[in-house]
Design goal:
38% of the residues lie in helices and 26% in strands. By secondary structure, the protein is an alpha/beta fold.
Length: 236
């Protein structure tokens, strides 16, 4: 289980996260929704060591992550698919996947996981020798997810996976998230597409200006008038 306790982050004089706390139980999908600037990306970056919290902790199965180098956090199975895909544009699809397994030494396991990624994303298999920078946005998102899976994550964190993608591709990506979760991988998802995120979530949290203001099951939040008005574009 991922446990976040009293986590605060400052950017200069801006208090981006204000003592938030939440849990991501093993084997579940948890969605964190909120508007631009709410602190969603900062939350994920602080968990993987890309942003240093000013106070508070993140722990995975009782072991503190806060203060560890990002490489050590990845080796513990906590992996981030960053916003904007961040694929290595000048490398091939296959080379990007190889880099995803950089911390591993089990050649047979890496080969099996590569095969599994190609089963999940047949389009990547078709384009495995193509440079990542020439892929479409949807294909780059597939590659970003596949690259993360090559590290064999126990907790997969995804930052705005639907951003800039066509609705049909978004539906496919969220279907893959469900499939990944069914294999036993815990998922923490942050999204502006609140409807899509909450529909697949076992539990959800609403983050507003650095504070968690609402929480509940995905279904409960989808039915909440405040969420419907603020994030689903529906009148109260």
């Amino acid at each position: 289980m991922l446990a976040i306790e009293k986590l605060s982050v400052h950017y200069g004089g801006i208090h981006a996260l204000q003592g938030i706390g939440f849990e991501v139980p093993d084997g579940k999908i948890v969605s964190l929704i909120g508007a631009n600037g709410a602190g969603k990306s900062t939350t994920l970056k602080s968990i993987v060591g890309l942003v240093k919290p000013s106070s508070g902790t993140a722990s995975w199965n009782g072991e503190a992550l806060t203060g560890l180098p990002t490489k050590d956090i990845v080796e513990r199975g906590v992996v981030l698919v960053p916003e904007g895909r961040r694929v290595f544009a000048n490398l091939t699809v296959d080379e990007n996947l190889t880099l995803g397994a950089y911390a591993r030494k089990d050649k047979d396991g890496i080969a099996a996981d590569r095969k599994r990624v190609f089963e999940l994303f047949p389009r990547l298999d078709e384009r495995k020798r193509q440079k990542a920078g020439t892929l479409s946005g949807g294909e780059q998102q597939m590659l970003a997810v596949g690259r993360a899976l090559m590290s064999r994550p126990k907790l997969l964190m995804m930052d705005e996976p639907s951003l800039g993608l066509a609705p049909i591709v978004v539906k496919m990506i969220f279907g893959i998230v469900r499939e990944i979760n069914r294999t036993g991988v815990t998922v923490l998802l942050i999204e502006q597409n609140a409807k899509a995120a909450l529909e697949i979530a076992d539990r959800g949290y609403v983050l507003e200006t650095g504070r968690i203001t609402l929480q509940g099951s995905g279904a409960e939040l989808l039915a909440d008038d405040r969420v419907r008005k603020a994030y689903l574009g529906e009148a109260q």
